[in-house]
Each structure stands twice: as C-alpha cells, then as structure tokens.
Design a protein that fits this description.
This protein is mostly beta strands. It has one domain: Beta Barrel (Porin). Helices cover 7% and strands 74% of the residues. The protein has one helix and ten strands. Strands 1-2-3-5-6-7-8-10 form an eight-stranded antiparallel barrel. Strand 7 and strand 8 form a beta hairpin. It is elongated.
Length: 219
C-alpha cells in the first residue's frame, strides 16, 4: 500500500506542475550495508542460526532530475554496475549415512545489478542561498542469490529486490549552472532468500545507510 501511495504521488507531481529545469550528474556514495541473516543449516529443517554483519563500500551512481515550479524535484538514480550486497558462510556437520558425518561450509551471496531509484525531493531555499531537501524514493534492483550447501546441491535464484529510501540533504549552486548536494539517506530493502534442494535456506534482511556527495549541472 505504501508503495502504491508513493507511486501516485510521483504521477500527481508530474501532472500538477510544469517543469522549470532539468539536471544531471553523478554521486559518490559511502555506504554502510547492514544485513541480518538467518539460515537453516540442517537437512531436517529444525535448526536455525542468525548473524548480523556490516560492510562498508564506496560506489558511484548517475542521476537525472527535474525541478518543478513548486520546488519539488523528481529524479531517477542508477548504479551502472553489479555489486555484492551480502556474503555469508557458516560451518556445518551433516550426517550423510547412519554412521558417517560430513563437514563443510554453507555459503550464501547476493549480487545486485540494475539498481534504480525513483525519488522526490521537496526543497526549501534558505536565506544564505543554500537549499535543504528531504528525499523519499522507490528502489528496485535485480538480485542473484547463490546458496552452496555441504549436504545438498548448489542453487542460484534470480529475484527482484524492492525497497524504500528516505533521507535529508543540502544543495548549493556552483557558478551559473552547476551545483553540489550532500545527502544522508537510508534504504530499507525487502527480505531476499534462496533455498537448496534439501531445504537449506538463507534469508537476508538488508538495510543501507549512505552518505552521498553529488555534483551536477542544470540545463
């Protein structure tokens, strides 16, 4: 429901105001990726483990946006490469026969590509010429999840990763047509999971906190 409401807000913003100017640019992002992982490491489906991991990564993105006459910015941000959002491993001892135990490592990874964010930024100009804004966006990406289990065959699952982005930032003009933006935002992604043939399941709940510095040009 919240995604439907946000989508309607995007559409309403386009039909309710005329365009004033367009912009495009690139962003350098410093991200803290927090992942809460849970998995079933036994073939009987009764033993679960959980683990929280955090990764710091730096990545770039490009954006194009339009500023409407009412001060609202509508934009699209794109990460033009594949990134590993999470990787998890845990040791396991599995009984393959009535008397024989096999030890090994269960592994799970999630590689994300075609990461798109459609966003709106209500903006307010300050007395010193700077602007402050809030960000609300819809996120969608392709994710390839791979699970390797010592007691089963490996499995690769292709899914769609959705999320909600929200943040705050500051914008400042540079020269006649240039500008830079500094933004702190957070994205809450939906859970992703992959299961092998013996029901060994890895589930990841991913959240990212990002500090982004953008440089752009209006035209």
């Amino acid at each position: 429901m919240k995604k439907l409401i946000l989508t309607m807000a995007f559409l309403a913003s386009f039909v309710s105001a005329a365009y004033s100017q367009s912009s495009m640019g690139f962003t350098v992002n410093l991200a803290d990726i927090d992942t809460s992982l849970s998995d079933d490491i036994d073939s009987n489906g009764t033993t679960d483990t959980t683990k929280d991991i955090s990764n710091n990564v730096v990545f770039g993105s490009i954006f194009i946006e339009r500023e409407l006459n009412n001060g609202l910015i509508v934009g699209l941000d794109f990460i033009p490469f594949e990134a590993e959002f999470e990787s998890r491993s845990t040791t396991q001892t599995s009984r393959t026969t009535s008397t024989t135990d096999t030890s090994g490592t269960n592994k799970g990874t999630a590689d994300v590509s075609k990461h798109l964010t459609l966003y709106v930024q209500p903006t307010r100009e300050l007395d010193n010429g700077s602007k402050v804004f809030a960000t609300l966006g819809l996120v969608r990406a392709d994710v390839e999840s791979t699970v390797q289990s010592v007691s089963s065959t490996n499995k690769t699952v292709d899914n769609t990763l959705d999320g909600i982005k929200f943040g705050v930032g500051m914008k400042r003009d540079i020269g006649a047509n240039g500008f830079f933006k500094l933004e702190l935002n957070r994205t809450d992604y939906d859970d992703i999971s992959a299961t092998t043939s013996n029901n060994t399941k890895v589930t990841a709940d991913i959240d990212t906190t990002v500090l982004g510095l953008s440089v752009g040009r209006s035209f």
